[in-house]
């Protein structure tokens, strides 16, 4: 299995732990990630607010480069996943836009490539590798983890990555239960974290994130598991300055790939646990060899 | 709800669009026409599912249902002056749940583009600068440079905000999450050609050449 890996800008900065852990997990599971050569920013949602054709054109450059390779694209950032899929859909449906974007790409000697699927790694791991094979590769116990599985917005809306109810996905819960962890019931799992409002309306973003954190703590979670670099950053930033008396306790905010990686025997450093703002003190002991899961 | 008053021509006569409103509406309809399903706007039954589903409607001065009502009533200028279109975090919950299949989120994007094109914002309101700064940064490097984006945004809008949030910045920095140097893509020349060509479809021809932004804040100010 080989995939074209589109890390996106955040995975080289605030989301560096996501980059490390996704590479480690795919490697352990024998799936090859080949980073898309010279990829550019997908445009995110901010670009769409300013210039429409430009927004589609820069996003389409990545699709054009990926089409030359031909493998399915894996986009871990929810915003990248959404923007690239939206570009595929919009250019497929709107002939005028498609012609204009095609003309823009031609300036760089590129051709439109809309046929390459853009997939989220959570869906790839579940569909192509499957829970059974992930469990079979498990070497370490994550039984002490009580994750609040948080999906956020853009992998379930408007292009649902998972083949299940976008209002109440359970893919991560099923995966982590199979790996021996105890996911807590987490009703706000598809509520918005505030996204880029963390910069523009910080007080609004903070309220949304604090509600998400509050739910997790109320339900007895000892970590939050996310699928998006922006969700992770927004929730993790609440850990800053929260050691004072009266403030809620810190709670580690992990990427789902970090938790899978730990179960597969990756070292905490390998999956970037050191980049989290709250220390992870939960034990990850090796599974006894004789009773290892298989 | 705000009263329907045009600041330039006084109160709006029922059934008659004001001059500025007519200009905005023409521009908007030209843009919205290219969004698939935009014609479904007229199917809105004002049920309020969008507002009830919106996680940030509490922070909006006009809720999403009112946005559609006001658009249909011919009050686009008031819409562009509301916080609402900028408070939307693009979570798509309204779009997902709308029983009339209206993509409310896409509508708000169309309003954002129009606000930037027409230069109409709520007073003392710098939020659109984030989107504009993002566009500048990406045009410069081919990728987003998160550290630079945030520093530049705050320098352009509220320098004190940087001070207030220094602890968060330092925490990210200490944990190796804020690279100090941007990564440029190799095909930057070609990338800019794509942008330049695509821009010609978004802008009236005479404006294309004036779009270069030069300022002495951001990278220039911090010697980068």
Could you give a short description of this structure?
With 294 residues, chain A is of the alpha/beta class.
Write a structural description:
The complex is a heterodimer of chains A (294) and B (224). Chain A is α/β, with parallel strands linked by helices. Chain A has two domains: 2-119, Glutathione S-transferase Yfyf (Class Pi), Chain A, domain 2; 133-275, Rossmann fold (3-Layer(aba) Sandwich), CATH 3.40.50. Chain A contains twelve helices and seven strands. In chain A, the strands form two sheets. In chain A, strands 2-1-3-4 form a four-stranded parallel β-sheet, sandwiched between helices. In chain A, helix 11 links the parallel strand 6 (223-226) and strand 7 (253-255). In chain A, helix 1 (16-28) crosses helix 12, helix 3 (52-69) crosses helix 5 and helix 4 packs across helix 5. In chain A, 59% of the residues are buried. Chain B folds into two domains: 18-118, Fumarate Reductase Iron-sulfur Protein, Chain B, domain 2, CATH 1.10.1060.10; 128-211, no CATH class. Helix content of chain B is 51%, strand content 2%. Chain B has twelve helices and two strands, in the order E-E-H-H-H-H-H-H-H-H-H-H-H-H. Chain B has helices at residues 19-32, 49-53, 64-73, 76-80, 84-87, 93-97, 104-118, 128-141, 146-157, 159-164, 166-174, 188-202; strands at residues 5-6, 10-11. In chain B, strands 1-2 form a two-stranded antiparallel sheet. The radius of gyration of chain B is 20 Å and the shape is globular. Chains A and B meet through helix 2, helix 3, helix 5, helix 9 and helix 10 of A and helix 6, helix 7, helix 8, helix 9 and helix 11 of B.
């Amino acid at each position: 299995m080989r995939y074209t890996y589109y890390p996106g800008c955040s995975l080289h900065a605030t989301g560096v732990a996501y980059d490390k852990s996704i590479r480690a997990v795919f490697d352990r599971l024998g799936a090859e990630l080949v980073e898309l050569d010279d990829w550019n920013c997908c445009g995110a949602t901010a670009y769409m607010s300013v210039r429409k054709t430009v927004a589609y054109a820069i996003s389409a450059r990545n699709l054009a480069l990926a089409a030359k390779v031909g493998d399915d694209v894996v986009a871990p950032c929810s915003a990248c996943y959404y923007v690239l899929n939206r570009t595929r859909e919009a250019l497929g449906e709107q002939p005028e836009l498609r012609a204009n974007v095609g003309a823009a790409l031609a300036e760089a000697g590129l051709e439109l490539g809309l046929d390459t699927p853009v997939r989220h790694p959570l869906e790839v791991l579940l569909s192509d590798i499957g829970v059974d094979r992930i469990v079979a590769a498990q070497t370490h116990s994550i039984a002490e983890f009580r994750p609040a599985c948080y999906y956020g917005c853009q992998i379930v809306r408007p292009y649902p990555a998972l083949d299940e109810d976008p209002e109440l996905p359970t893919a991560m819960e099923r995966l982590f239960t199979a790996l021996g962890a105890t996911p807590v019931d987490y009703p706000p799992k598809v509520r918005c974290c505030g996204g880029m409002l963390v910069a523009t309306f910080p007080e609004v973003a903070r309220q949304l994130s604090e509600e998400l954190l509050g739910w997790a703590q109320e339900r007895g979670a000892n970590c939050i598991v996310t699928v998006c670099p922006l969700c992770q950053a927004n929730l993790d930033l609440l850990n800053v300055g929260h050691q004072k008396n009266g403030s809620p306790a810190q709670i580690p905010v992990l990427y789902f790939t970090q938790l899978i990686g730990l179960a597969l025997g990756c070292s905490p450093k390998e999956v970037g646990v050191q980049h989290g703002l709250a220390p992870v003190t939960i034990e990850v002991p090796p599974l006894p060899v004789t009773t290892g899961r298989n | 709800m705000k009263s329907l008053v045009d600041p330039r021509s006084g109160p709006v006569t029922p059934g008659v669009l004001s001059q500025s409103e007519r200009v905005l509406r023409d521009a908007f309809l030209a843009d919205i026409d290219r969004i698939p399903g935009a014609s479904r706007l007229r199917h809105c039954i004002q049920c309020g599912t969008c507002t009830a589903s919106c996680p940030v409607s509490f922070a909006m001065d006009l809720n999403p249902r009112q946005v559609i009502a006001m658009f249909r009533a011919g009050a686009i200028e008031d819409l562009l002056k509301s916080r609402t279109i900028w408070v939307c975090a693009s979570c798509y919950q309204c779009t997902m749940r709308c029983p009339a299949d209206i993509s409310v989120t896409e509508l708000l994007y169309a309003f954002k583009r129009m606000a930037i094109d027409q230069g109409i914002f709520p007073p003392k309101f710098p939020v659109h600068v984030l989107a504009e700064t993002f566009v500048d940064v990406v045009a410069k490097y081919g990728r987003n440079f998160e550290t630079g984006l945030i520093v530049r945004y705050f320098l352009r809008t509220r320098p004190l905000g940087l001070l207030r949030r220094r602890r968060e910045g330092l925490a990210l920095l200490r944990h190796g999450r804020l690279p100090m140097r941007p990564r440029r893509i190799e095909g930057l020349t070609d990338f800019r050609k794509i942008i330049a060509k695509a821009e010609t479809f978004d802008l009236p021809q005479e404006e294309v050449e004036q779009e270069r932004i030069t300022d002495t804040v951001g990278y220039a100010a911090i010697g980068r």
